[in-house]
């Protein structure tokens, strides 16, 4: 679907990263082959950050919200809704937004809402936050959190194959502002291809058991258990290259913008190769489509686009305005894009947590 | 071109004999990461840019298919 919202803006973006940084060469040294080093060059992997094995998604999100409250970048009484997007929640019940609500001691009339969404989470969250704001009383803000700890581990644990996943949370404040330019969204899904990215065990269809943890399946040349995330690499690559470019062309047309009028293409970052091919297919300069998040922090799933904004635009967003094309694509399969004006925000930064 | 492509394949996965395989993908000689690495090497060695929509497993099952995809995308001998 296509949708547009008037008078709604992002007023702040905070990215929260785990404290532990893993260097690709050091982490793979005990099994590295020429192919491992080639993967680094082709895919653009250098460093990643993963949460400690005891850290939960709500821990990361809470760290970020508390940072905003303690630094007077957000007031409790301004919060009208807590919107959380994650695929690694603390519990099935209660929702993670309610965990945050309780920890923060928020009033009863704050809306709590969780959405299970993977790599498209950030842009879908902006869309959902916009819908909430259309019905919210003046002066109230939506606190949108993306957070995942799919890669959490103890620093001592050795990995058995190259990893480019990362953990992160983002806290994005959205509010009404009559002067904000129109924001445009496109949302697409194809559940028929859902098994291209799937974690079989852990839900009610296949609860986790000692048997589901046994790595006895070959998936795209890799040994996997039902507890692992399975990815059909070719299917996912082809989905992105086939579906995302037309969706971008469509939303540019819907927003009345040309490709040249877009200052930044801030896309989900699975790896450098995929983004290079996307920029080639779209005819967009690679300099406008950064791939340095997966390179320096790892692919943090639904938080990737938010980390991209915080890292690449950062303090420049306090005084400047940029026309941005955002796109998240992955598990579902889902692909959600937006054309928005970002700028004149109250804060846009990245912090390193102790988690 | 064929000789050069075999050389690239052997550098990618030296543990396999590509000359005896009927299907590099089906036989497990190349996974999706290998295909990505192969595409990068083909683009560098044959001075071309392979269209993303051509990067599908069926275009990398045999030496003939690989040659065809390189030629289709303007690869030079």
Which features characterize this protein?
heterodimer, A: 2 domains, six-stranded mixed β-sheet, 10 helices, 17 strands, 28% strand, B: 77 residues, mainly alpha, 3 helices, 45% helix, 0% strand
Largest interchain contact: A-B, 22 and 20 residues
What is the CA–CA distance across the termini of chain B?
6 Å
Number of helices of chain A: 10
What's the order of the H and E elements of chain B?
Answer: HHH
Which secondary-structure class do the elements of chain A indicate?
A: alpha/beta
Rg measurement of chain A, Å:
19 Å
CATH structural architecture of the largest domain in chain A = 3-Layer(aba) Sandwich
- Sketch the major β-sheet of chain A: 6 strands, mixed
Give the helix/strand class of chain B: mainly alpha
Number of helices of chain B: 3
Give the number of domains of chain B.
1
Encode the helix/strand succession of chain A as letters: EEEHHEHEHEHEEEEEEEHEHHHHEEE
Strand content of chain B: under 5%
- Please tell me what the overall shape of chain A is: globular
Which descriptor suits the 3D outline of chain B?
A: globular
Mean pLDDT of chain A: 95
Report the radius of gyration of chain B as a whole number of Å.
11 Å
Helix content of chain B: 40-55%
Helix content of chain A: 25-40%
Overview of this protein structure:
- The complex is a heterodimer of chains A (355) and B (77).
- With 355 residues, chain A is α/β, with parallel strands linked by helices.
- Chain A has helices at residues 24-28, 34-43, 57-70, 96-104, 121-133, 233-255, 272-282, 292-296, 304-313, 316-319, and strands at 2-5, 8-17, 21-23, 47-49, 79-85, 111-115, 141-148, 168-176, 183-189, 197-199, 217-219, 222-224, 229-231, 264-267, 321-330, 334-343, 347-352.
- In chain A, 29% of the residues lie in helices and 28% in strands.
- Chain B has one domain (2-13, 25-72).
- In chain B, helix 1 packs across helix 2 (32-45).
- The model of chain B has no long low-confidence stretch (mean pLDDT 91).
- The chains are: A alpha/beta (355), B mainly alpha (77).
- Chain A binds chain B through residues 34-35, 38-39, 42-43, 218, 220-222, 232-234, 237-238, 241-242, 273, 277-278, 280-281, and chain B through 11-13, 28, 31-37, 39-40, 49, 51-53, 55-57.
């Amino acid at each position: 679907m296509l949708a547009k919202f008037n008078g709604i803006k992002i007023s702040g973006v905070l990215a929260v990263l785990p404290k532990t940084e893993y260097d690709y060469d050091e982490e793979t040294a005990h099994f590295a082959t020429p192919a491992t080093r080639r993967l680094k060059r082709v895919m653009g992997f250098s460093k990643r950050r993963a949460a400690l094995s005891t850290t939960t998604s709500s821990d990361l999100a809470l760290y970020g919200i508390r940072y905003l409250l303690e630094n007077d970048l957000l007031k409790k009484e301004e919060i009208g809704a807590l919107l959380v997007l994650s695929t690694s929640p603390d519990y099935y019940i209660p929702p993670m937004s309610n965990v945050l609500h309780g920890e923060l001691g928020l009033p009863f009339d704050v809306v709590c809402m969780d959405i299970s969404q993977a790599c498209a989470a950030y842009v879908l969250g902006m869309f959902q936050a916009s819908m909430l704001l259309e019905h919210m009383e003046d002066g109230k803000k939506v606190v949108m959190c993306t957070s995942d700890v799919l890669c959490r581990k103890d620093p001592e644990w050795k990995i058995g194959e190259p990893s480019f996943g990362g953990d992160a949370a983002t806290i994005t404040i959205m509010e009404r502002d009559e002067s904000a330019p129109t924001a445009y969204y496109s949302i697409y899904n194809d559940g028929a291809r859902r098994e291209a990215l799937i974690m079989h065990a852990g839900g009610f269809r296949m609860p986790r058991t000692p048997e589901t943890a046994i790595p006895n399946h070959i998936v795209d040349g890799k040994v996997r258990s039902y507890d692992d995330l399975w990815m059909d690499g070719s299917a996912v690559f082809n989905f992105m290259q086939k579906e995302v470019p037309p969706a971008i062309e469509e939303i540019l047309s819907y927003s009345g913008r040309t490709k040249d009028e877009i200052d930044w293409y801030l896309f989900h970052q699975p790896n450098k190769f995929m983004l290079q091919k996307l920029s080639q297919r779209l005819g967009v300069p690679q300099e406008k489509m950064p791939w340095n998040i997966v390179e320096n922090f790892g692919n943090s799933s639904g938080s990737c686009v938010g980390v991209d904004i915080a890292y690449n635009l950062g303090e420049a967003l306090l005084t400047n305005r940029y026309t941005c094309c955002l796109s998240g694509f992955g598990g579902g399969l889902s692909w959600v894009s937006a054309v928005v004006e970002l700028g004149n925000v109250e804060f846009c930064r990245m912090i390193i947590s102790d988690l | 071109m064929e000789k050069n492509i075999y050389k690239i394949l052997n550098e990618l996965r030296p543990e396999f004999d590509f000359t005896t395989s009927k299907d590099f993908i089906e036989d497990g000689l190349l996974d999706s990461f290998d295909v990505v690495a192969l595409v990068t090497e083909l683009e560098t060695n044959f001075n071309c840019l392979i269209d993303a929509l051509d990067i599908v497993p069926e275009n990398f099952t045999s030496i003939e298919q690989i040659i065809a995809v390189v030629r289709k995308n303007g690869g030079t001998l």
